[in-house]
Design goal:
145 residues, alpha+beta, six-stranded antiparallel barrel, 3 helices, 25% helix
């Protein structure tokens, strides 16, 4: 189970992340994982207790992006929207740096995308990634408090 805090950061934090990724010395890849939040049903809670503040995260799609193809956060959100037809709630983002010789290899990129999904399944290592909602607002996702 994870908790979500939507009160952190600025509205252009996704653009800031893209700017930081572009400042890498070698060509980096932006790794994204779309997540669906599935609330845990508390049979003892009142029916009118409001929205769930914790639940399970389920990975639904991954993609590696070439930074030159993503001018800003809005373009990134539009690109990931085109990946899946199903509902998603959060975007998990990581930056995989390249080297002066070139971008990360496809094998390394695929392995890192798998590591992102593993982090969601195990709940460990999630602090290495940035999370955003569907409107590019940063969110804090972590273990229940």
């Amino acid at each position: 189970m994870d908790t979500v805090d939507t009160s952190i950061g600025s509205s252009n934090a996704l653009d800031d992340l893209l700017t930081m990724a572009r400042s890498e010395p070698g060509p980096a890849r932006l790794l994204t994982l779309l997540l669906r939040a599935e609330p845990v049903v508390d049979r003892n809670a009142a029916a009118d207790s409001g929205p769930a503040e914790s639940g399970l995260l389920k990975p639904i799609a991954v993609k590696a992006h070439v930074l030159d193809d993503i001018p800003d956060g809005s373009a990134l959100l539009a690109d990931v929207e085109g990946v899946v037809q199903s509902e998603w709630h959060f975007l998990m983002v990581g930056v995989l740096p390249g080297s002066l010789a070139g971008p990360p290899s496809p094998d390394l990129t695929d392995e890192q995308l798998k590591n992102m999904a593993r982090s969601v399944h195990t709940g460990s290592g999630m602090d290495r990634y940035a999370f955003f909602d569907r409107h590019a607002n940063p969110v804090l996702i972590g273990p229940p408090s």
